[in-house]
Protein backbone atom coordinates (compact mmCIF):
# COMPACT_ATOMS: atom_id res chain seq x y z
CA UNK A 1 0.00 0.00 0.00
CA UNK A 2 1.32 3.41 -0.99
CA UNK A 3 0.78 6.43 1.24
CA UNK A 4 -0.37 9.47 -0.69
CA UNK A 5 1.08 12.81 0.41
CA UNK A 6 -0.97 15.99 0.77
CA UNK A 7 1.06 17.82 -1.88
CA UNK A 8 0.40 15.13 -4.46
CA UNK A 9 -3.35 15.26 -3.83
CA UNK A 10 -3.46 19.07 -3.85
CA UNK A 11 -1.66 19.26 -7.20
CA UNK A 12 -3.87 16.53 -8.66
CA UNK A 13 -7.14 18.07 -7.47
CA UNK A 14 -6.44 21.77 -8.08
CA UNK A 15 -4.47 21.43 -11.33
CA UNK A 16 -3.05 24.89 -10.55
CA UNK A 17 0.41 24.11 -11.91
CA UNK A 18 0.36 22.05 -15.13
CA UNK A 19 3.79 20.46 -14.71
CA UNK A 20 3.15 19.48 -11.09
CA UNK A 21 -0.33 18.21 -12.00
CA UNK A 22 1.17 15.92 -14.65
CA UNK A 23 3.78 14.66 -12.18
CA UNK A 24 1.11 13.97 -9.54
CA UNK A 25 -1.08 12.20 -12.10
CA UNK A 26 1.82 10.02 -13.27
CA UNK A 27 2.69 9.16 -9.67
CA UNK A 28 -0.88 8.23 -8.77
CA UNK A 29 -1.41 6.20 -11.94
CA UNK A 30 1.85 4.30 -11.57
CA UNK A 31 1.77 3.60 -7.83
CA UNK A 32 -1.93 3.02 -7.12
CA UNK A 33 -3.70 0.01 -8.57
CA UNK A 34 -6.62 -2.20 -7.62
CA UNK A 35 -4.15 -4.80 -6.41
CA UNK A 36 -2.04 -2.24 -4.50
CA UNK A 37 -4.26 0.74 -3.62
CA UNK A 38 -3.10 4.07 -2.30
CA UNK A 39 -3.70 5.14 1.27
CA UNK A 40 -4.73 8.63 2.41
CA UNK A 41 -4.29 9.14 6.14
CA UNK A 42 -6.67 11.10 8.36
CA UNK A 43 -3.96 13.74 8.76
CA UNK A 44 -3.76 14.26 5.00
CA UNK A 45 -7.55 14.57 4.80
CA UNK A 46 -7.47 17.22 7.54
CA UNK A 47 -4.80 19.16 5.66
CA UNK A 48 -6.96 19.11 2.53
CA UNK A 49 -10.01 20.47 4.35
Quick recap:
By secondary structure, the protein is mostly helical.
Task: Explain what this protein looks like in three dimensions.
- This protein is mainly α.
- It has one domain (2-48).
- It has three helices and two strands, in the order βααβα.
- A two-stranded parallel ribbon has the order 1-2.
- Helix 1 crosses helix 2 (18-31).
- The chain is flat and about 30 Å long.
- The mean pLDDT is 95.
- InterPro entries: PIN-like_dom_sf.
- This is Nucleic acid-binding protein.
SSE topology sketch:
Layout: E1 2-3, H1 6-14, H2 18-31, E2 38-39, H3 42-48
Parallel strand pairs: 1-2
Helix pairs in contact: 1-2
Which keywords apply here?
flat, 3 helices, mainly alpha, 49 residues, single chain
Q: Bin the helical content.
A: 55-70%
Outline the biggest β-sheet. 2 strands, parallel
Provide the gyration radius in Å.
Answer: 11 Å
Shape: flat
Give the domain tally: 1
- Can you count the helices? 3
Q: Within the largest sheet, what's the order of strands? A: 1-2
Distance between the termini: 23 Å
Order of helices and strands: EHHEH
Name the average pLDDT: 95
Amino acid sequence: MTGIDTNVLVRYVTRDHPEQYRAAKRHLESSCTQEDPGYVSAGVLCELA
